[in-house]
Structure formats: C-alpha cells, structure tokens
From TrEMBL:
The lineage of its organism: Eukaryota, Fungi, Dikarya, Ascomycota, Pezizomycotina. Keywords: FAD, Flavoprotein, Oxidoreductase. It comes from Penicillium brasilianum. This is FAD-binding domain-containing protein. It comes from the Eukaryota. PANTHER family: FAD-BINDING DOMAIN-CONTAINING PROTEIN-RELATED, HYDROXYLASE, PUTATIVE (AFU_ORTHOLOGUE AFUA_3G01460)-RELATED. GO terms for biological process: secondary metabolite biosynthetic process. Residues 52-248 form the FAD-binding domain. One of its GO terms (molecular function) is FAD binding.
Length: 351
C-alpha cells in the first residue's frame, strides 16, 4: 500500500472465535475497509504460510488458493498455526487437566430434574471443579474441569464428543459430588471435551508491520483466571482504537498508518499480557497453594476487572512523547448479536 495511494484497507481475520468475531464487530467503526473473516475450523485445515513484503501480506492456503491483504489479524486460537510459523520457539504445552462442556435445553432438563436450580452454581472437590447454570435463551450449561494425564490430553481433539468410556470416567471422578451433577450427566447426549494447554508469553503481539495477534493466539494462558473472554474483547477494541486513531491523524490508509497503529496496539496490550503471565507463574509456586497464598493471589488479580481499554490506550499514546491526548476517532461501544455470543460461550448442544 503506497503512502500516496488511497484505497480501502484490506484486512484478513484468521479465526472467527470470540476474538476474531469481536474484531469484526468493532471494525464496523473503521472507515473505508474491506474486511474478510476466515472461520477457524477451515483455517486449521487449510492455512499454509504467510508471505510478507513492503506492500502487502499474502495468506496461502493448502488448497492452492491465497488472499492478498494489507493487515492480517491472527485469531486462530491457542493452537495458532500462524503463531507456530512466526514464533516456533513458543510451544504450547498440555496441562494435566481437561474441560468437559455441554449445553442443554432447560425446559427438557427440568422435565427429568424438577429441582433444577436457577442461576449459576459452583462445586469444588480437591482438583475437581464443576460449574452449572443458566446461560440465557432457555439454555442450561454444564462445565467440569477434571485432572487428567497430560500425555493423554495431548492426544485429544478440540471439542471432540466423548464416548461412553470417557463419560464413565467423568462419573467416577465425580462420584462423591452432589447428586444433582449425576442427574445432569444422566441426560448427557453431546458432551464435548476440551484439552487445556498453555504457551509462553509473546514478547511482541505484532510482526512485520502487517500482522497482529489477538485472543488466545496472542496470550495462550489456557483459561487461567477465567478472563479469556475479557482479554479477547480488550485486544479487539484496542486494535480498532489504534487503527481509528492513526487513520484520523494521517487521513488515509498507508503503510505508516498501519505500522503506527500496530505499535500502539502492542504498546497498550503487551504490558498487560506480561502481568498476566507473571501472575500465572507466581500462582504455580508452592507457597501460592496455601490459604494465605491463595488470598494474596486473589488480591493481585483485582486489576484484571478494572482495566479501562481507552485509558490504557491513552497512556500508550502519551508514552510516544506527545503528553495528554484526545482520541481522534473513538470506538463506539459494540454489542455482538446474542446468537453469536451464545455460539462462543456455549459451543456444545443445539444453538
């Protein structure tokens, strides 16, 4: 993209899970763009390699097709193929845990479980955790986090349906749990299993002035602190804040407009992500497993719930040496369609 050439900014979002969909939603505020979203499951099968030059990025697919764009937003999840290509040293390691998930129709479940509770409820038993409750639109969710062998976890596919042997294993692990849990398991028809994995911190969330990472592709924390959805939305909004601002300053989409936007995105989000990984590492220390340690960790986590994306972005702008700033093109609050949010938070069951 030549600095003097005025044409739409071509964006490819690789992966349309929560982070990719959020980028697509927030991007509605960007002027003069051509954005295309490539669904994650297809990308996992077909994505080949990226070729970057001064003017564009070409995404090659295994079926021989390709797309040429100005900006690639990598949102293809914790097992990101593109992250593996650009940062081969960042290897995802499987944890000795798995997550089971299923979504039920509340009306159907209530017929066999008359005492099905309202709201949400958590059950803890040593290393076992179960979460049940209403997730909206007449659906009732079940999530269980269970210990498992890390080598066996590595062999699992993402969101595979479990067989009768796995279901029996889950029942045995929850044998001493509340009887309500077993009543729900009796109605299971499409329980999914999700391997839990974690990678290292990316020292930069951008590459080659044309590529940026969002969501689990940017910070593969494996569900730590239960804040992955927040991280994804914060990534997406920060990226669009940066693009809107630099476009407002330059008045067109150019290589410099993109480069500065990505640097601002990285300057805003990287310190935040580093703190997350440092907190995650500290939480694994033996002293953190004591009651006092758990309390200290909880206190240290409070900042996770108080992040203001626009405030953090203004700090990054000020750090460029310009002092206090006003956003040239603020990003309006964006709500994803309810049906899309349901697909993200409840991937199993009939939606």
């Amino acid at each position: 993209m030549d600095s003097a050439e005025k044409r739409p900014l071509r964006i490819a979002v690789i992966g349309v899970g929560l982070a990719g969909a959020a980028v697509g939603a927030f991007a509605k505020s960007l002027p003069d763009i051509d954005i295309r979203l490539y669904e994650r499951s297809l990308v996992h099968r077909h994505v080949g390699a990226l070729a970057v030059n001064d003017d564009s990025v070409t995404v090659h697919f295994h079926d021989g097709s390709h797309v040429e764009v100005d900006l690639v937003v990598v949102a293809d999840g914790i097992n990101s193929k593109i992250r593996q290509q650009l940062y081969p040293e960042n290897v995802v390691k499987y944890m000795p845990q798995v997550e089971y998930m299923e979504v039920f129709e509340r009306e159907h479940l209530s017929k066999t479980i008359p005492d099905l509770p309202q709201g949400t409820h958590c059950f803890f038993q040593e290393e076992r955790m179960v979460f049940i409750g209403d997730i909206g639109r007449g659906r009732f969710g079940f999530i269980a986090v269970m210990p498992d062998d890390s080598e066996q976890v590595a062999q699992l596919g993402w969101a595979d349906s479990i067989n009768s042997t796995r279901l029996s294993k889950l029942r045995a692990q929850l044998e001493r749990c509340n009887s309500l849990i077993h009543k729900i398991l009796d109605q299971s028809k499409n329980m999914g299993i999700f391997p839990i994995a974690r990678g290292g911190w990316l020292t930069s969330l951008i590459a080659n002035d044309r590529i940026c990472f969002v969501g689990d592709a940017a910070h593969p924390t494996g569900g730590a602190f239960g804040a992955g959805c927040s991280f994804a939305f914060e990534d997406a909004k920060t990226l669009i804040l940066a693009l809107n601002h630099t476009y407002g300053v330059n008045g067109c989409w150019s290589k410099e407009t993109i480069r500065r936007a990505l640097n601002l995105y990285n300057a805003t989000r990287s310190p935040h992500i580093l703190k997350v990984f440092q907190l995650l590492e500290a939480s694994q220390e033996p002293e953190s497993q004591t009651e006092r340690g758990k309390l200290a960790t909880a206190q240290q986590m409070k900042w996770l719930t108080t992040i203001d994306t626009e405030v953090e972005f203004r700090k990054a702008l000020a750090s460029e040496g310009n002092g206090p700033v006003t956003l040239t093109r603020p990003v309006p609050e964006t709500l994803l369609p309810a049906q899309e949010v349901l697909k993200m938070v409840a991937p199993r069951g009939s939606l």
